[in-house]
Amino acid sequence: MNLKEVVGKEAVNYVKDGMIVGLGTGSTVFYFVHALAEKVKEGLNIEMVSTSIQTVELAKSLGLVIKELEEIDHIDLAVDGVDEIDKNFNAIKGGGAALFREKIVADIAEKIIWIFDESKDVEKLGNFNLPVEILPFGYSHTIRKMEKLGLNPVLRLKDGKTLVTDNHNYIVDLHLGYGFNIDEVKNKLADIVGVVEHGLFLNMCDLCISGTPNGAIVIENSNKK
Ligand code: 5RP
């Protein structure tokens, strides 16, 4: 079994009858959604919302019903992947361009579980470039401002064209380098008009499930903000 599948299956054990569950996005969540669909077929009774059109389509293909955020008043549990996570439970997300919806769902969720294979587990963030969602209106100026602030932005392309998110925005990947100053970058981004949201998810999870060759390792975050 691959490590993403190991953690995807493990996370399903935390989903209980009656919960409203936020489904993340990506190749690790893919296995979680598959395992969840099996449980639902066996009788697990839950409601679900999604962080991306990609996950909605996956869920629907497996017979799951996905609600709109406006149809629910809370989320009990969100399960999502990460691109990198450090020892303080600070993560970079957005490799799959879904960071905005992922952050909204994470912000609403009472409990958050991040699932990943052990390669995502890092001492310090920064080998993975930090995704930032920006508005298309005036985007070249937004990018210029980022350049002036030393954030090394690169507009993300897909098939040679500017990638457009589920929210009809663009993604810029900041090449910050290993061990960048998280607070400094966060503060700089807060000052740039045109930034919709960034992929820094700082100390937001309650539980991490890391996939290792010896199985899933569950790590609790007792210092969650
Ligand atoms: C999408 C994300 C994903 O959670 C992140 O990219 C991890 O994906 P994967 O499980 O495919 O490695 O943030 O925007």
Describe this structure in words.
The protein is α/β, with parallel strands linked by helices and 225 residues long. Helices cover 28% and strands 29% of the residues. The chain is built from six helices and 16 strands. It has helices at residues 3-11, 27-41, 53-61, 99-108, 139-148, 182-190, and strands at residues 20-23, 47-50, 66-67, 75-80, 84-85, 90-92, 109-117, 130-134, 153-155, 157-158, 161-162, 170-174, 195-198, 200-202, 207-212, 215-220. The strands form four sheets. It has a seven-stranded mixed sheet. A hairpin with a 4-residue loop joins strand 5 and strand 6 (90-92). Helix 1 packs across helix 2. The longest helix is centred in the N-terminal third of the chain and has 15 residues, at 27-41. It is globular, with a radius of gyration of 17 Å. It binds ribulose-5-phosphate.
Overall mean confidence score, pLDDT = 97
Share in β-strands: 25-35%
Radius of gyration: 17 Å
Q: Roughly how much helix do the residues carry, as a percent range?
A: 25-40%
Which small-molecule ligands are present, each listed once?
A: ribulose-5-phosphate
What key attributes describe this structure?
225 residues; alpha/beta; 7-stranded mixed beta sheet; 4-stranded antiparallel beta sheet; 6 helices; 29% strand; binds ribulose-5-phosphate; EC 5.3.1.6; NagB/RpiA_transferase-like; isomerase; Ribose5P_isomerase_type_A
